[in-house]
Amino acid sequence: MYISGRERKIIEELLAHPSGITIEKMAQILDVSSRTIHRDLKMVEDILSEYALVLIKKSGMGIQIDGDAYQKKQLDLALTQVEFTDYTPEERQAVILTTLLEAKESTKLVALANELNVTVATVSNDLDKIETLLQDYHLELVRKRGYGVQVTGKESDKRATLSYLIFKYVDELDFLAHIKRKIEKNATTVDTVSERLLGLVDQSKLVTIEKSINYVKDELPYEFADSSYIGLVVHLALAIERLQKGEQIYFDNNYLDELRGTKEYQVAEKIIEGLRTAFDLAIPEDEIGYITMHLLGAKLRSDKGIIIEESAVNIMYLSKLLIREVEQNIDGSFAHFDNLFKDLVTHLKPTLYRIQKGMRISNPLMAEIKRDYQALFQVIKDACNKVFEVTFPDEEIAYLVLHFAASAMHGYHGQKLSALVICSSGLGTSKMVSSRVKQELTEIEHVDHASLFEIDQLDLTQYDLILSTIPLKDYISDYTLVSTILTEKEIDQLKRTIKKKQLKQGVLQQATASFAIGEQDFSLTRIEKMQRYANVILDLMSVFTLEEIASEESKDVALTKICTALADKQAIPDADALHGALVKREALGGLGIPDTRLALYHTRISGIQKPIFQVCQLSVPVSILSMSNESMSADRFILMISPIEISDATLDVLSFLSTLIIRDQETTQLFEGATETRLKTLLSKELNLFINEKI
Distance between CA 100 and CA 90 in Å, rounded? Predict the structure, then answer.
């Protein structure tokens, strides 16, 4: 059967809204007028009749499909198997953009018009809208009379745009199924945007890429989320296709050097080596850098703490500033939510690199996040601009909003809300609204009714939500005006309001829990875990000292004396090697903690078996570069030195100590000026609490 793109979209939306959808909302989704929707419904009704289904209209509810569930399923299946379909304007623009990104030469407008069965004027109008999107990805649309049209720009930006299109138009399950199943070449399937985008890469290549990833992904200390897995497969698939066409991508050499020491780089290197062999293709090392960034961004939240990396402490400091800045702009505190801090540290390193290099990511939930957390979104966006002094794309902000929102809801146990419904009499209409509220809003547990004349007698503070079918003007300021039938649009608005209230409750809720261990917890596994952490802490505390160093106003002299003292104690095998590692680390970025007299020197070296944690008091302050890249004065150096290969328990403990130094003003001041005895007392107390939480 023939079905137009708009008719197909209308049916898809009707199937997705079994309880009904208004004409206005449908028109908004399809970006057309309500009159156009009404005109198309006649053809839609004819299509529905072929499946013994009917289109019914209910006042206040909109339109919906009525009929047998099996027939609805058959209709849904048929939409994927029609012989021909045209595209909605948005889909058509995606097809045009995909074609231009794939083309090496310019493309004539008439060729695009003929392929899409539209006029040249329509294609020209589509190109105007495409041009706006391309600007976001730093690409240029070149249009010349007699020349045609062409997309120009960096290869990395072209790939980012293609990835965006795939993530926008291809469902995750469809993509995974596309990898898993063998598509028959002669099958008659709808030429949808999803199919065209999936057709950018050969299906057999996807299978090879998937196998290459699966061979090595177990070497990573975390698992892939589906979205991260798909993102990596998409990147590799596009990379292979583009490399075979002679297109190459370039990665910053300095950052590539920094990534080489990471576990993710080693895994990325193995993936590329497998693909080089499988496709007999010369793949440049730059691709390894981009794959490493995908792997770094794929880390799932875990209880393993924060891995100490060369720039991790800088990220810790910035993460703390970001949390504090957000706290200052909301009515609540995230201070007791440790997972938020850990999540931000893990998330921000690849994020900041992407922003620095102009790499764009796709966030399919962005529109929904911006709608549901509008105020929090803007607060976090402003905070990021202030703390990092760079502009964060909305896609990145949306991911950060999820971290903050999840932290705010942590410990929130879904307390039910109460609502008050007000009408002129407090009888019929308010009960109609109450019935709809209980039916559609499961978060509302208790609903009261009141008339306009009873407002003064009620304690309105006991209600989380106040709805009214009449304007209250000066009676109440915080209420929601609704119709007596409570439309779908009003329900959506109320759901967003409820989310905001739950978010605020989650932030304000002070979750306290006492540490209690039941007999069942004393298993052999738990005892072994306790022993591992205890051994690490014992190793650190047994060698912890506060050393007095005669600095003579020279940072280099101070570092040399610190390294020599450690070598004299046989804590390290080679003073020069440690000195070189510390100097190299400092060259990557400032180590001074802003607004303190502290500098945190951290590195990994070979030749030692146990980690070292030490505080050094300089006799004379020295000038160093801070983590915010400003000159500062420091007279206490904190050293954190670990072996190249260390256990998860050691990583956990070192991560905790890094966090402790900048946790709050009180602990920072202790590290700045406390005696060795006082510092040991602090460390013993905090590490004891830490191990109790871990075990």
Answer: 16
